[in-house]
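Researcher: Following up on the earlier apo prediction. This time include the ligand. It's copper (II) ion, with the SMILES given after the sequence.
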Amino acid sequence: MDDKGKLLTTGGDGEFFGGATGKFFNVKSIEFGADKPRVYRGANLQLDVVFNKLGYHYPQQRILTLWEDVGALLDKKRSPEPLVLRMNTFDCAMYAHTNLIPKDFYMDDYQITTPTDVIGQHIHLPKWDLTAGDGSANGWNYEDGTFSPGMVRERIHAINKWNEIHQAESPVPNPYNNSSDPLVPKAHPYFGILAGHQESDCVKLWNVVGGDSKAFDKQYGMPGVCDWLGARTTLQRWFSDPIFNAGGVNRGLGITFTHDHLGPSTHQQLGLYATMLTEPAGSLWRNNETGELLYDTAARKDGGPTSWQAIITNKNGKAIDVDSDGKDDSHREFFLQYGDFQHAYQKDHFMALIKKVLSNQQLPKVSV
Ligand SMILES: [Cu+2]
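Model: Understood. Below is the ligand-bound prediction.
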């Protein structure tokens, strides 16, 4: 909504605080309103990332990426890169946040075994709904996160077991049909059927082990088998405010950091963070090298393609004047980011979690 509390709708207008007391700016023709937001579909993914030509790599690297890039990343047909999303000022956006990451981080030479059963998507500068779109557990807010598929399965197992034991007393009814049927994890509508990355009969395999989540994890929880059975997507909404200065120029939000707020001490050093850049209102973005349109809804449904580098112009390559000085503010953008730490192993070292050599015996032993 705008700064007078009015709902912003696509094609409609809104009023926003100006640079002086009592002053408002009227903005016309909202491009992505609350009724039809800009949509990004992102996934949290664990993969063995190689960092340099010497083959330094990290097998439990966790990154954010768009849905339609997940297959190519796992097939090594696409190089991993930090996820850079873009919005224009005055855009309302919806982010579909999917968790495909194991529910535990396993001990290695850098960190101890840590539960990573829930992941949030906590964005910094845009407006969001504190009670339902914070992507964390701040203040009054309960955990606004997305369970790991492994945690969904473990909870289903626990609920079914409790009901089994308390059958004679008051079992919790199945919320989907009010019966006493046990709960069953579902295949994710996109990732559960991603050919080559999940078996096609994971629900059947769940039934084969009698709904025992531990037995299921041991036999079918490996990467590329049925590790994503029960994967969830939660929705977050953002709004990119204008920031008018005293001269009436909208400077925009600029660079926005977004990350997981529920296991940050573990994830901060594993690469699980992304960036949302705010561009001038109404601008269009293309890839710097290929000229290909970014956020191309004709080509993709996940808000892609995206890249860390872009050409920012007005629609159809026309000039864009951000500060009303009569000059073209079109520009090239290169977003560089660096982290203080990155765990890495030398080539051919610590391959334990890679599918080819993974067996139940090789899972790291954890003593409690
Ligand atoms: Cu934060």
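Model: The mean pLDDT is 89.
Researcher: Noted. I'll compare it with the apo version next.
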